[in-house]
Each structure stands twice: as C-alpha cells, then as structure tokens.
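pasting for the record
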Amino acid sequence: MGRLVQSPPPARANRKHPTGRSRGQLLCSAEGKRYRCLTPTKQPPGLPARFRMPQEKILRFADNDFWSDERVELAFLISRVTRVLRRRFDMDMASLELTRAQWRAMLYVFRLSNPTQTELAEILELGRASVGSLIDQLERSGYVSRVADSDDRRVWRIVPSRLAVSRQSKIDRAGRRAAAELFADFDEKDLRDFRRCLEKLIPSAE
C-alpha cells in the first residue's frame, strides 16, 4: 500500500470564516465599512458600537461628585506641585550629570547621614535590587561608596564621597533656589500654616 500523505492545512490568510469571508476580508471590513490596508495590529478608526460609552453615561461620569470634591482636587494639586518641583530641580542637576533618580538618592544620603541600602530603598519607595543598581551607578560616578557598619559588619552604609561633599553646596543652592521660586508669594505665616497643614495630613495618608 502506498504511504498516506497528509495535505498541509490551508494558508492562514486563506482560511474561511463561517460567514464565508476570508481572514483578509474580515480584517478589511467592519460593520459593512471598508478600511484600507488594515493589519492584525491596527484597529479601525473609532470603537465598535458595543465598546462605546453612551453619551449620557459620559456626562454622568464627568459630573460625578468625585471631581467636585475639594479634597480630591487638593490631592491632584499636591501631586502637580511635586512634579513641577522635580522638573525644576532636574534642570539644575543636569550640570552635575545626575539623573532624577540619582539626585533624589543623593539628597537622602546627605539628609539621612549615611543610610543603609534598606533605609534608602524605603525612603525612595524602591525595591532593594533597584536601589542596589542605583548605588552602583553612583559608585561608578564617584559620588558614594559602600562602607561596612561599625556595629554590624553585615550592614553596608552609603557614604558620600569627597566629590559628592565638594558638590553638596551646589546641590544645596539648587534646592534653596527651587524652593524660593516655588514659595515666592508666601510670607512667613503662610509657610508656617502650610507646613502645619501638611504635617497634619501625613499621618492620615500613612
């Protein structure tokens, strides 16, 4: 008997849909409309009707009490101020060739006075591996070094280098300049009141 030979399946593009149309035809048509040169990774302009949100629902969502709550609006404003302040600081740190992640880490290395990698990870809200990679970058740039803790040799502390200490004054000036611009319209009483509000807010947020 001759050997049975199984014929290959039809090409993917020529397979038929139950409607009798080929895959290519299905890709080039939707709800009776023709679209030019569509590929599987592209979508036809506009959403199909079943995915569209009715206009009345959009209006109800836009008018939701969520957006009219002053506390929600304040939370968005605080987030916006943080972004503006970081962008402003980015410009000053560019001359030191420090990325945002790097200058934030350096600020806390100075502020926390030789923190451990774990402490730095917590304050930056990063994983230990991510902080480890960040410290490696700063070490290669000559800004920090790892020093074993005098009380626990298993713990490594992040210590600023001579280069970092020599440039600390420039980092401090950049921080003061950014803060001065941000709070230019605040008098001393405004600053005290604002700080008191933020200190009252932090425990609730945590």
